[in-house]
Amino acid sequence: MIKIGVVGGTGYTGVELLRILAQHPQAELRAITSRKEAGMAVSELFPSLRGHVDLAFSDPAAAALEQCDVVFFATPHGVAMNDARRLVDAGVRLIDISADFRIQNVAEWEKWYKMKHACPELIPQAIYGLPEVNRVAIRKARIIANPGCYPTAVQLGLLPLLQAGAVDAAHLIADAKSGVSGAGRKAETHILFSEASDNFKAYGVPGHRHGVEIVQCLAQIIGSDIGLTFVPHLTPMIRGIHATLYARITHEFDFQKLYEERYARERFVDVLPPGSHPDTRSVRAANTCRIALHRPQGGDTLVVLSVIDNLVKGASGQAVQNMNLMFGLDESLGLAQVPILP
Amino acid sequence: MIKIGVVGGTGYTGVELLRILAQHPQAELRAITSRKEAGMAVSELFPSLRGHVDLAFSDPAAAALEQCDVVFFATPHGVAMNDARRLVDAGVRLIDISADFRIQNVAEWEKWYKMKHACPELIPQAIYGLPEVNRVAIRKARIIANPGCYPTAVQLGLLPLLQAGAVDAAHLIADAKSGVSGAGRKAETHILFSEASDNFKAYGVPGHRHGVEIVQCLAQIIGSDIGLTFVPHLTPMIRGIHATLYARITHEFDFQKLYEERYARERFVDVLPPGSHPDTRSVRAANTCRIALHRPQGGDTLVVLSVIDNLVKGASGQAVQNMNLMFGLDESLGLAQVPILP
Amino acid sequence: MIKIGVVGGTGYTGVELLRILAQHPQAELRAITSRKEAGMAVSELFPSLRGHVDLAFSDPAAAALEQCDVVFFATPHGVAMNDARRLVDAGVRLIDISADFRIQNVAEWEKWYKMKHACPELIPQAIYGLPEVNRVAIRKARIIANPGCYPTAVQLGLLPLLQAGAVDAAHLIADAKSGVSGAGRKAETHILFSEASDNFKAYGVPGHRHGVEIVQCLAQIIGSDIGLTFVPHLTPMIRGIHATLYARITHEFDFQKLYEERYARERFVDVLPPGSHPDTRSVRAANTCRIALHRPQGGDTLVVLSVIDNLVKGASGQAVQNMNLMFGLDESLGLAQVPILP
Amino acid sequence: MIKIGVVGGTGYTGVELLRILAQHPQAELRAITSRKEAGMAVSELFPSLRGHVDLAFSDPAAAALEQCDVVFFATPHGVAMNDARRLVDAGVRLIDISADFRIQNVAEWEKWYKMKHACPELIPQAIYGLPEVNRVAIRKARIIANPGCYPTAVQLGLLPLLQAGAVDAAHLIADAKSGVSGAGRKAETHILFSEASDNFKAYGVPGHRHGVEIVQCLAQIIGSDIGLTFVPHLTPMIRGIHATLYARITHEFDFQKLYEERYARERFVDVLPPGSHPDTRSVRAANTCRIALHRPQGGDTLVVLSVIDNLVKGASGQAVQNMNLMFGLDESLGLAQVPILP
Q1: Nearest Cβ partner of C197 from A185, A187, A238?
Q2: Which residue from D minimizes the CA distance to C237?
Q3: Where in the sequence of chain D do the CATH 3.30.360.10 domains occur?
Q4: Residue B138's closest CA among B304, B327, B326?
Q5: What CATH number has the domain spanning C150-310?
Q6: What value of ipTM does the predicted structure carry?
């Protein structure tokens, strides 16, 4: 059994992580911390966990996280970096679902996240936890930078094209739509039910942190610069990301075959038959990314549709997938659940 | 492994049954029938089942249902009764998620369901599949009349009071709210998104089939007549039933204790601490009923709040719970999943 | 033209009031105050008002409210009572959409609203602004206590029965469902989109301020005590209240006729034909209350269905209706808009 | 007063047209036809119209449409073209909210709408009813082809760029998101509440009728070919279209100024300040298009955000705007309503 600590269990990635771990045959939850809710039973805050998680939130200072095999950070940005040194030195592996270790360029990170990084020396050790790209490195990692939700959907959707050199990499467009849970469980006006329901809007068009993350990772993979216009939108649904990706074809391929072969051995990437339009609910509460390809009117623009559940493949599910890899388990252990439909 | 047939796999109780059975360690799906979709892969209609269910829909006439151990009917009312005789004679057990065997009084059934019953002689053999009441009989049953969604929520909410003789059984009120999936996956105008969302309404106030079912079952349990005003409402959510129950107290009890003791050994009924207000999402996609008790302002009216997922404890989950009982398995096998929140 | 001030224009009753007043032929908006947003254009916070409201929010201290003919308070509870004395002394009429003047018994108010009342001596002057009951007094009022949203729907639904002495007034039940905008535009976790959508729950079952308001007002009308069990629920829609009311019949009437006659001359109360089930969207964005009556199975329990838009007839629309009465205008001036459907 | 007939009053564009006309000071509704609901009071089908529309649906054959000044067609495609000749010959003006007269190339129309056109000889007389482009011609038109909802949002968003020759017109991208009411009030499975809510999907990516309409109209305006990748998506909201438009800059302009000047005198197009992100609810139930411009990271791709209410500026509101022009009225008569927020 893997001894597990969770820092920050009161947000949506936290409760989703607990849901998955509570059903994972090798997971032994040791501590769930929350400064604010210390002492309260986890299942009092989240009655959905009654009978599944018996722990109470503990104060981060008091939790014996050093005795865990792995600690997940389901915290706001800027928390994991403060605890990382201590845990890594104690031999604990760390999976950071927040963004503290995603951007290799510290100055860039500090610009976009508007704070000083607490342990820049650890960033080079962190492995970007997208198993479909970094599986080998993940197995040996001490620190996992778990990918953002948009970056997961966009990268899985664009990877085969870029690795094949099939499209104009300087002018990619990612028009992405996210359910409201992607904004977290913070008390903020713009994500109130009466603001966000029966409504649709773009946000962050001038620039968004996830755009930087995508560009960095894709550029590393293909070894040259990337140009991306990334426009996220807030969609009146709880879970789900739908990325609609546009790329200008520069070299002809059998694109359907290209994708099917690239992902043939990937358990959590599902390339749909030609002509498909994946809906986000087809992956609701599951760790799957579904992808479909279109070439409208036979033109020179390829359209890729990529859907994930932002809280699972876009956050906590992928984090557990990474844990499975790090501890030599079957990559899909505890992650085989059927999506919830309707 | 239990060899299983499913008749009518294209509706919401059907796809939910497939979701549960696909993860059930003792279930072997043999056939899923649909007259209309015969030949189509199940996962084409429901991409959420890709990789989990490999069967295609088969024509009801061609499916070798007689070779199954159990056949579930996830059909509209009036289908199961036509196949029941043949299957029962072939030694197949039958779990009818529709209403064909729920009402013992044939004339009453025919009045409310507006058709002639095809096998009235089998009705007395059918066991009403509410395990919390009929567990012993269910184990030996050949035909299970799986309870309706509203009746499950209302009966579990009222049972302890009625069995204790604590309230005026002649003037019960059940104000019940259901998610739209309770209306099925039929193409009907009133359940279109643009009609049912951002909207709320009562329906069937003059009389509703489920009112008859509740009255019959509760009257049998306490051995005397019941008076119930039952008002269902359509609520803009996909899944979930919230029953708000009102009863006039005639004999004083420690009501919290009464409920906790009544359900102490019930795996799927969760009595919440005093002061609780269960929300429907706390049981989303799970086979649990959560109940809370209130006595507003210390008056003589008791308010019971009872929530279920209409497609799970209110339909397909309860059907699998019944299957487990019929085949001597652990009652909760394949039904231990954590609710999906948010 | 009526010179109008609005205190607290950043909440939902505020923006709804501005929407209505912007289209009112006799309304001249002079000042809209907000301590927090002072200086910002109203249409910057609410782009829906671009081209309709040209004012900026002003600081409450700086706004010349004394020079208005009438001042609306669309504030949280506890604000209006602090300004009331000054405005009344300046000859300004005051319409308080919050609860500061609704409860005649000061001790009761202080218990439920958990603060000391700032001007108890003005409470007796305040007229409860339910035009269907207090039309004559409203015309001459200096201070209007605009009714709460639930109380409007429940009182209009029960009035004819109680005034006729037709039912057991000691055991009334009001099972009420409200859209989330009823909770206001405050940044609170429980009304986030991801908490409140696809979910349903009761709240405040042990006791709710609006229950007290309803009981006080109905008791005054019939001149004797009232017993009411009031259970509010949070419903995943933006606007709308649906009150389902249960009363035990003590004297027989032609109830349909009773209601039709009681409301025959009421412009904003619409008694539906027998057998109807009003949906909340049928009054969306309009100042109408629609009511339908049912007597299920011919029993002794009457079921009344009453729907309003909580922000219009349940708040700002009714406030303008009161203003019309106070200034001798046609009661429906500026309030004749057709509901928005779908 | 303008004598008005409405053919097809049971769909969403129909009921929205009735809502607007009921409040229009110069509109006199003479007949509302529905083959299926003939004889039923309009307000029985749509209780929101109680007290506002007193007519009953009449049979199309019996309605004296020839005596109207103008007849609106709020019908499925393929109906208006059958009645057009007769009405035009009788001197009646015709505003077709469906697509029968939108595509000038008959073969193209027949290919996309999969039927034979009944009166190809009338197509050249039809004026495409986008007032911001065709105002002069609309005033004298006998037949108006009212634009589609997507085409309205996309064209208003792209017009200034194309007319200025500022972007690569051969590689435009329109990623458009529509509320579900855009699919009409037909009983179809995919737009059921339980299918379309808490879900998001693209559709029609290989090709969509509205793409053809947009390309034809924009090409006419600039006098040369257009290349457009148009991807529509179904969004879980009732009303609203959000078009996110991408264009590669070929000639530099002050784009904000370009848009502000182009639409300076347009009553129903609102160019937002730099940095804005319009939400669809900011135009809910109103005849306004709001537009914002972005140039992410100062690159060579311009992003235009364009929102409308699909039932108003995208259908019935624009139809009334056209009527106002045709009858010499103030273009905004009856269309000045404030959007509904929240």
Answers
A1: A238
A2: D342
A3: 150-311
A4: B326
A5: 3.30.360.10
A6: 0.97
